[in-house]
Write a structure and sequence with these properties.
This protein is α+β, with helices and mostly antiparallel strands. The chain is built from seven helices and 29 strands.
Length: 424
Amino acid sequence: MLKERFSKISTKILYVIFAVLISVTIWVYVEITVNEMQIFDVSGIEFEFLNEEIFRDRGFSITSRTPETLTITFEASRSEMLRLTAPGALIAEVDLSSVLSTGTTILPYRLVYPSNINTNSVSEIGASAARLTIAVDTVREREIRVRPYYDGGTASDDLFVDEIEVNPQYILVRGPDRVVQMIQYARVTVYRENLTTTYSENLEFILIDDNGDELDSDLRDLLELIPDTVQVTVSIREIKEIPLIVNFWHGDSTSDENTHWSVDPQFIRVSGDPVAIENYANSILLATLDTTTFSSFFEGTYRIIIPEHLTNESGVTEARVTVDIIGLEIEFFVVPESGMHPINIPAGHRVEIITQSLDVRLRGLRENLEQITPVNIRVVTDLSDRSGAGTFRQRAAVSIIGLETEIDPIGEYFLTVRIIQDDN
């Protein structure tokens, strides 16, 4: 029993001793590895400028700097090394407030450590550069013209590129005088092909230097561009051939069959946005002609009117219209005063017709004209637009009565009437 208890106690003691040995081993390892001093490099340390507002207020701009980034050699513990080599852990501050003139200036920098670094345990033992060298130039503003460029063509021969517009036409460039002076113009290129309709989009542009080459990207980064994109519109227009036509208001004797007409020119070419062209009518109406206003032949000139959003590519602005009435004849009749009738006589008045007879032209087929006598012709003048006494020349309407036949009175007619106040 005693031996057994002694054995258990001995085992516990051995476990304790073993645990102590492991702890001591770990502590020794940490002291040796983690806290062991290391020499290492941190590269790619960025410069950060202080008092840039003051620098810009003086009209200055940085055109170049050497070096672009820093490499610092440190001696520190392994744990501090891990913190210092983390991306962006270190920055180099440079104060620009001391720069008072243009040219090359050498400035000191101050290394800024992360807040979790014990700087007393870190030693800087080397650097790729002891100072920052900057080239300083005056800031200049200048308006640069934007030139659009497109050579992608259209989808068919009926379409063409009308114009390429850019908005705004000028951009404001602000930056170092030396760099701004190098710029000739800005170029914006439309990378599209076989357009079928007008194209418009905001696009970026490139700056072209005085050698005709694109400005180096490092130099462009020194510039402020207002705006940084422009709207480019490539206007696509379609050419379409559209016939010129006339419509007719027919009386009783004429129809589309016996009315022959022609137009010179027969058509014109117009251009416009393809969508507008598609929605536009397939013909241009010159006029609607009343066939009762002429006997058997008519000739007249009419303006060719097209919508404002379309362009007359033919350049012709007038068309000559010729009309022939085929197969009909003209007969003259004299209508006596008995065939003249005023209507809508003003109240309290009476009418005396001054015109004693009226020559009337009638048009129709020969067999229909032979049936007409002056008794069948009625001339009516409407006095509803008169309210008092006086002598007036009034428009008159001629009609055929007593016969059902396809006869048209031709032309305009007037009667002279005297409106007399009725004293009865």
